[in-house]
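In response to reviewer comment 3 from the previous cycle, which asked for concrete evidence that the modeling workflow produces usable outputs, we include below a single protein chain processed end to end. The sequence was submitted unchanged, and the resulting structure tokens are shown without manual editing.
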Amino acid sequence: MPSWEIFDRQDADYKESVLPSSVTARVSVEMAATFGWEHYVGLKGQKIGMHRFGASAPLKDLLKFFNFTADAVVAAARKAMAEK
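The workflow returned the following structure tokens.
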């Protein structure tokens, strides 16, 4: 979702087509704070993001250090589906 503001201005039918209320196994991936994503992933959703101030290093090292990996996204998706 490139912009919460633009998404939130859309009509209810559009929002439902993108984030169906029947789908509660949701995962957000944000290379910044997870704050605010609970509105879109819901109580059962999983959020991958920063929980502290950033760091300086080559990107590939930071992605691994902060757990922005395909394995982390898959694990979060599996957890969200299990808690559905």
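The longest helix spans residues 70-82. We consider this sufficient to address the reviewer's concern, and the full set will be provided in the supplementary archive.
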